[in-house]
Every structure is written in C-alpha cells, then in structure tokens.
Design a protein that fits this description.
10% strand; 364 residues; little secondary structure; 7 helices; three-stranded antiparallel sheet
C-alpha cells in the first residue's frame, strides 16, 4: 500500500511539472520531504531523491533530538558533552575536575595526614618535646634538622643564630649564660628546678662567674655531640673540669663530693648538696669569728689570727677585713693569693718585717 501511494504521487508530480513548465523542460518542481511536506527544491535539486525514500523517520543523529547542554547544542556528528560532574569526570592528580576534587595525593603537593597533633607548630609544644628527647626529630626533618622531603627545617621558622644561642632553649631568666632557670621543662621556680644552684655558680659574687665548662662539656652549637638528641635525653651530663676536675657527682642523691670548689682550700675535699644553703666563710674553711675552727687551717693561721691579725692583712687583694670578699676573681680560683707588705715568701718561708715582727727564714 505504501509503495502504491508513492507511485501515484510520482505520477501526479511529473504531470504537474510537464504541464506547468510551458517550455518543454522539466521544471524545478516541489518534492515531498521525509516528513510528508512539500519541499520546494532548488535549481540543482529536483527533489526526486526524496521521493524514492521509503523510511520516513528522521535521521537518528539530528541535532533537534540532542541539543546538548549549555552552550554546545551539538551537531549531527557531535551530540555535545555531559556536564562536568563527578560521575563522568573523576579528575586526575593534575586536574581534579570541577565537582570532584579527586582522592588525597600524599605526594609533593599534598603531605597527607598530619603526623603530629594539632598545635604542634607552637614552639612551646614541639620545642619541649625536642629538648627532653621525646622523639628523634632527625628521622623526618633530616640529620641536621634542615628539612627532608615534605618535612620543613627548623631554620624555616626560627630566627637566624638560634642554633648557637643557648637561651633559645634554656636559661635566660636570671642571666644570659644559658644556665637555668628556665630549665628544659620550662620551670623557673627554684623548688621546681632539678638543680637550683646554677645562678649562684655562674654569677660573680664570692667567687668568679664560673663558665659552664667547669661542670659540663660545653657545646658550641645545638647538634654538637653529647648535647641534644644523645643517649641521655633531657639530662645534661656533669663532667668536671679545671679547678674541680676530681669532683664526683651523685645525681640520684643530688650531691657533689671530692670538690675543690667547696673544700677548705687545701685539696679536693669539699662536698655539698644541691639544695644546701650557700656556705659562709666557716662553711668551707676556718673563720676569724670562730676560734675553734682555726686549728683546721694551714700553717700558722692559728698563731696569726690569735695575735689579732685579720684575713685581709695577708690576703688584702682578696678580702677586706675578715668577712668581705672584695675581688671574687681571686677567691676559690685554685690559687692562694697573698699580699704581704715587707715580706717575701719562698717555699712557705717568710723573710722580712711583718705586723711588727722580723722574719728570717721563718717557716709558715
């Protein structure tokens, strides 16, 4: 039936063309489109091809059936693209897509989950952990703590020179030597300090201001051997040098022994506890004020003190009278400093006139 209908239509159209031309030629006659409408044709298209088609359905790729989203209406061969969403564009490490950020990438641009807890960047937090050896930071931050991979270096945040500034990590409360207080835990109160007498030792009071090296191996920089990150984390080893190189430290008891610095000036025989009060003159050697102590002093101290002499009569560069240290640098310094007007002393033998007496070869 369908083919018959097309045949009648062909005859009708051809007849109309032959009659309508008037000049004996085939005129540009209207043709029937695939949709059954008249197609006026054009000078080069008679429309006959349309007449021969038996499939009246529109082409499957026609743009009218797939306009495409957005500004891309599509074409017969390009139906447009789908929206840029997570279902069709999961993204890549370089292009995470518009709506899908992709998955975490623990590479150079994304360090991945944080190793340290929140607030770790505060120096009061990570600094305290470093000082007591909670962890060896060099594992992640490099052997010199200058950074490694994604882990930053200490110098990235800390001010220049911090590695050689003792008070950056400890001390700085009483003086600039680096001696506590502040100790490694941050404590400043004497009752909280592991060793509360640091300030007394590094201050020039009744003795020289002792350097740290008297009792410790003094580092020049943060990572020097035996300083931080050693096998005794959070503790400074006590190793005596110089005037008290024979001293012994009992850390458990909190006491020093066989120390010249706390002895009677005649050898390595002093001892003192960490929390003992600072001794006066009689706490180390005999005192002018305590006659019973004179016998323990060297040579003829007892005789001279008994004759009314003051300590300053023979040690005038060190002490005024018998109680006031006038030059701390000459007291507890490992030497006996005498000032003997009119007297020469050689091998503990006095010659000359002193305190109203004449000495010739007098032994001390």
């Amino acid at each position: 039936m369908r083919q018959a209908a097309w045949g009648i239509l062909v005859i009708g159209v051809l007849g109309a063309g032959a009659c309508g031309g008037g000049d004996g030629t085939v005129a540009d006659t209207p043709a029937v489109t695939d949709e059954g409408r008249l197609d006026p044709g054009n000078p080069g298209d008679t429309g006959f091809a349309d007449i021969d088609r038996t499939d009246l359905a529109p082409p499957p790729d026609a743009a009218v059936e797939d306009p495409g989203p957005g500004e891309d209406p599509g074409t017969v061969v390009d139906p447009g693209t789908a929206p840029d969403d997570a279902s069709t564009d999961p993204g890549t490490p370089d292009d995470p897509g518009a709506s899908d950020p992709g998955t975490p990438d623990p590479g150079a641009s994304d360090p991945g989950p944080a190793y340290h807890p929140e607030g770790w960047s505060d120096p009061a937090v990570h600094g305290a952990a470093l000082k007591v050896g909670q962890e060896d930071c060099r594992t992640c931050h490099g052997t010199t703590l200058s950074g490694k991979g994604n882990a930053p270096g200490c110098d990235d945040c800390h001010s220049e020179g911090w590695r050689t500034n003792c008070t950056f990590c400890h001390g700085g409360t009483d003086n600039a030597t680096g001696a506590p207080p502040r100790d490694l835990s941050g404590a400043t109160a004497a009752a909280e300090l592991r060793y509360p007498a640091h300030t007394a030792h590094v201050s020039r009071t009744r003795h020289p201001a002792y350097d740290c090296k008297e009792c410790h191996v003094k580092p020049a920089a943060l990572l020097d051997p035996g300083h931080i990150l050693d096998d005794t984390p959070g503790r400074s080893e006590v190793i005596f040098h110089d005037i008290s190189d024979a001293a012994v430290r009992d850390a458990a008891a909190g006491r020093c022994a066989t120390a010249y610095c706390h002895g009677n000036g005649q050898g390595d025989n002093g001892a003192i506890g960490d929390r003992d009060p600072a001794p006066d003159c009689g706490g180390c050697h005999g005192s002018k004020a305590v006659e019973a102590s004179w016998g323990g002093m060297s040579g003829d101290h007892r005789k001279h003190l008994g004759e009314g002499l003051e300590c300053g009569d023979c040690h005038g560069a060190v002490v005024t009278g018998s109680t006031t240290i006038q030059n701390p640098d000459l007291h507890v310094n490992g030497a006996v400093d005498r000032t003997l007007p009119g007297i020469s002393m050689v091998l503990n033998t006095c010659n000359g006139s002193c305190h109203g007496k004449f000495h010739i070869g007098n032994g001390w």
